[in-house]
Structures are given as C-alpha cells and as structure tokens.
Amino acid sequence: MEDEVRNVIIIGSGPAGYTAGLYTARALLEPLMFAGYMSGGQLMLTSDIENFPGYPEGIGGPEMMLQLREQSERFGLEVHDKNVERVDFSEQPFKVWVEGELFLSRSIIICTGAESIWLGAEGEEEQKGRGISTCATCDGAFFRDEEVLVIGGGDSAMEEATFLTRFASKVTIIHRRDVFKASKVMYERALNNPKIEIKTFKTIKKWLSDENGIIGAILQDSRDNSEEEISCTGAFIAIGHKPITKFLENQVETDESGYIIPNIHTMTSVPGIFAAGDVVDTRYRQAITAAGMGCQAAIDTEKWLEDQH
Ligand code: NDP
User: Fold this and answer.
1) Are 247 and 87 in contact (CB under 8 A)?
2) 110 with 258, same domain?
3) Cα(309) to centroid of ligand 1, in Å?
4) Sign of CA dihedral 247, 251, 252, 255
5) Residues 214/132, Cβ–Cβ less than 8 Å
6) 172 and 155 housed in the same domain
7) In the listed set 194, 217, 237, which residue is the last one of a domain according to the structure?
C-alpha cells in the first residue's frame, strides 16, 4: 500500500484520459494515471483519424495516442500501464486497487471508454481469434485475397469494410435493416467500392467452421426468416460498443447500459469522482469530443479540489 494520498488518479488512457492528464499536470496536481494493459484505448485499433482538427493529412490512431501521452508526460503525468481491479468510493480518500496494490486519492477521473460488443451468434465464442474479430486494423492483413464479412450498419462497419478492401478479395457487409446509421459519406464510400457488396435484412444465425477456423455463416432474413449460406474465412463484427464500468460495481450512478450519468458538469453522483469520454458519452463518441470532455473533467476536478480547502 502507498501511504501517499494523491490529488487525482485518472483511470483510462484514451483522448479523454490523456487530456485530463495534460490539464491536471499543468495545474500542478501531480496526476497519476492507470492506463490499462493496452494503453491508448480504442484509437489504438484505428487506422487513420481524418476528422481531428489540426491534422490536415490525417494521423494514425496509435501515433496520436503516443503523442498525447508524450505531451502529458512532459508536464508531469505519471503513467502506469496497469489495470484497475477494484475501487472504493464510499469515503475519503478514495481507494483504487491495482494488481493487489492500494492507491489513495482525493479525486478520481474515470476515462475508461468503451469496448466492442460481440454478436453472440452460435459458434462465435469458439471462433474468436480464429477468423472472427472486432478489429480490422489489427487483423485485416491476415485475410489477403480472401473473402470476409463485416457485420453492422454504422460508421464502424463502413470504415472496417473499406479498410479491409486493401487486403481481402471481397468484403460483404451484413446489416439487419436497410436503413444505415453510418454517415452518408462513409456509407457511399463503401457502396461505391467495387470490392464491397452490401446485404440488407440479414443477421448471422450461425458461424460455420472447420479445424482451421471459420468457413462461412448461415444468414437469416429478418423479414421472412429464410436462410442462406455464405462462405468467408474472416468476419469482423462492428455493431457498436459498451462502456467499461463493471469494475466500479455500481458505486457511481449509471444508466441501464452501464454508461456513467454525469451529475453536475463532469462530476458523477459521488462528489470528487469525475468522468469523461466514451464512458459517459452515448451520443458523440468522437476522439475530439472525448478530448474536450477530458479537459472539462480536469478543470472541474481542479475547482472541486480547491473548494475542499
Ligand atoms: P453504431 O451504434 O453507430 O452502429 C451500430 C450498427 O450495428 C447499427 O447499424 C446497428 O443496427 C448494428 N447492430 C447493433 N446491434 C446489432 C446486433 N445485435 N445484430 C446486428 N446488428 C447490430 O456504432 P458504430 O460503432 O458504428 O459507431 C459508433 C460511433 O462512432 C458513431 O457516433 C460513429 O459516427 C462513430 N464512428 C466514427 C468514425 C469516423 O468518423 N471515422 C468511425 C467509426 C465510428 P441498427 O441500425 O439496426 O440499430
């Protein structure tokens, strides 16, 4: 156990976390960050970020996260690449357990973001990592000249499908409706790509596999339940995300999906506990909005700490 009581511990290390780290470090609060085993969050799995202002040529997700980390460390953010296991927010100082070690802090900023949702179709669990993935950037290159599926109708699905055409011979987007949540520009980019076919009103009923991994899927039509078989050696599930809040064990108020509900500005239902980024955001979920919220949470934390004196 550390006897020292920190001013602020930041949990999570996407754009929200690093921006909170940058601002609290510059406010001389000597912040400590638990970045997770896979620091950087979801943007570590993104190829090109083209919509973050200030990068006219775009920038790779991992490169941006590295730069954000360097920038906040330059001002004194202390980063540990470890996962928080458990917390106790019932009294001051707040308690945070990390790999069995206890850390104490007057305030906390939660920036743990969100993680991919899986479909849960028959045969999926056994084939994770054997052809079924949630990250085209990570696994796309394994499917050179092969046929792959992308499941979903949002921007993630369009982005993954377009990216996968760099490697795959054919990409089929499987969507359960004929209305797409994806932005028009990304939908049309996919629609106009000659390597991409879009199948609407289809869901995955079952994954088919042999000893080497998946070989296809049974698709079911959501209108009349009719079935058809499609062959593929890879499949990428892009149906959205869920917030990473399980470790909080309901100690701050969340909605029914687990997203943290802000109480006053970025402060949660527990005074002194703040949250920013995708872990609170059910609407925007952009790198730039997460970074903006990280800044807000840092300013709210600084003011709250000042008011405690
Ligand atoms: P979305 O929530 O936008 O889309 C999820 C898609 O998956 C929907 O089409 C949904 O279908 C479908 N879906 C959900 N559950 C199931 C299920 N059980 N079975 C089959 N289909 C399912 O999530 P995204 O991850 O695509 O995007 C999240 C946010 O991130 C958005 O704000 C998006 O704009 C942003 N984003 C931006 C990018 C960029 O600008 N470069 C890239 C990627 C994401 P239905 O429509 O029927 O609900």
Assistant:
1) yes
2) yes
3) 45
4) positive
5) yes
6) yes
7) 237
**Domain, as residue range, for 69:** 5-115+241-308
Ligand 1 pocket, 278 CB below 6 A? no
Atom of ligand 1 nearest to the CA of 175: 21
What is the residue with the minimal CA distance to atom 39 of ligand 1?
A: 155
Residue nearest to atom 22 of ligand 1 (CA): 239
Q: Do 249 and 104 reside in the same domain of the chain?
A: yes
Structural contact between residues 270 and 182, judged by C-beta atoms closer than 8 angstroms: no
Give, for all 309 residues of the chain, the pLDDT tens digit. 567 999 999 999 999 999 999 999 999 999 999 999 878 888 887 767 888 999 999 998 899 999 999 999 999 999 999 999 999 999 999 999 999 999 999 999 999 999 989 999 999 999 988 899 988 887 899 999 999 999 999 999 999 999 999 999 999 999 999 999 999 999 999 999 999 999 999 999 999 999 999 999 999 999 999 999 999 999 999 998 899 999 999 999 999 999 999 999 999 999 999 999 999 998 888 899 999 999 999 999 999 999 998
Domains: count for the chain: 2
Ligand 1 mutation target, pool 45, 55, 155, most atoms within 8 A of CB: 155
Task: Clarify whether residues 87 and 138 are in a common domain.
Answer: no
Domain end: 237, 266, 282, which one?
Answer: 237
Q: Residue 84's Cα: distance from chain center in Å? A: 17
> Domain of 176: which CATH number?
3.50.50.60
232 flagged as catalytic: no
pTM of the model: 0.79
- Tell me 40's DSSP state: T
197 plus 184 within the same structural domain: yes
Is residue 139 part of the annotated active site? The answer reads: yes
Contact predicate 107/58, CB 8 Å = no
| 91 lies in the same domain as 142 | no
Which of 116, 117, 176, 186 for mutating ligand 1's site (highest number of atoms within 8 Å of CB)? 176
Please state whether beta strands 213-221 and 202-210 pair in parallel, antiparallel, or not at all (unpaired): antiparallel
Claim to verify: residue 22 and residue 157 sit in the same structural domain: no
